[in-house]
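We close this part of the discussion by returning to an individual protein. The encoding preserves chain order, so positions in sequence and tokens coincide. The sequence in question and its structure tokens are set out directly beneath this paragraph:

===
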Amino acid sequence: MDLVFAGQLIEWRGPAPYYFVPVPDEQSADIREVAAMATYGWGMIPVDARIGGVSFATSLFPKDGGYLLPLKDAVRKALGLSAGADVAVEMTVRLGHPNG
């Protein structure tokens, strides 16, 4: 499943800062429809994502009925992004295979 969306980079300050792009409601609804085929547990959804010229693999975090796309520091720094930045995301949800 391929998705394209835009969002604002947010920072979550826990024991260490983490950065996420919230997946919009429409795309989150699409992901929920295939979540059972994609998740490997705890609601985590594996994806391949691309922002600008940087491609990376990660897993979406479920949050309040939607999803958050985490940005690793290596990706964020390579793109010169900080909290509040607007980003365009291309993303492919990696679906499992029914026959293993």
About this structure: The first helix runs from residue 25 to 38. The chain has a mean pLDDT of 89. DSSP finds two helices and seven strands in the chain.
